[in-house]
Amino acid sequence: MSREAIIQMLGQADKESGLQQELRAAMEGQADMAGSFVAAAAKHGFEFTAEELRGVLAETDGEISDEKLSQIAGGASGVPGLPVMSSSTLNWASQINNVLKASWK
After folding, report:
1. How far is the CA of 31 from the CAs of 37, 52, 64, 96, in angstroms?
2. How far apart, in whole angstroms, are the C-alpha atoms of residue 73 and residue 32?
3. CA diameter of the chain
4. Which of 50, 53, 76, 94 is most buried per CB count within 10 Å?
5. pTM score, two decimals?
């Protein structure tokens, strides 16, 4: 169920820029950025752990194939099960991924 919660959160964030801003703000200046992100998401009913979030974000990591690039350019997430998202949300999700990856090192 947690993977589905992450997918639902990304879909909701695509529709609500305020949610994107709140989740991003929750991480600012925090030692445990992932934990802060997860806690902020939970306030909106999205229940998942930092490790589960890491796993879903890892699906988007690495080289982007031509097919995946085509999907992304067309608005698709390129990750099975993730909703079609706007380019601004894809950019936001990528930024969140980069920030969290840096904190996990």
Report:
1. 11, 19, 30, 15
2. 32
3. 37
4. 53
5. 0.72
Rounded Cα distance between 84 and 37, Å, is: 22
Contact 100, 37 (CB under 8 A): yes
85: tokens are: 């998202």
**Band (56; pLDDT cuts 50, 70, 90):** confident
Q: How far, rounded to the nearest angstrom, does the alpha carbon of residue 23 sit from its chain's CA centroid?
A: 10
Q: Domain limits of the chain?
A: 2-104
Rounded to the nearest 10°, the torsion over CA 35, 26, 75, 79 is 0
In sequence order, the 6+-apart residues with CB closer than 8 A to the CB of 80 are: 59
Residues 6+ apart with CB under 8 A from 58: none
**Both tokens assigned to 43:** 């306030």
Choose between 39 and 90: higher pLDDT.
39
Give me the phi and psi of 37, to 5 degrees please. Answer: -65, -45
Closest CA to 46 of 80, 82, 83, 3: 3
61 or 40, which is more confident = 40
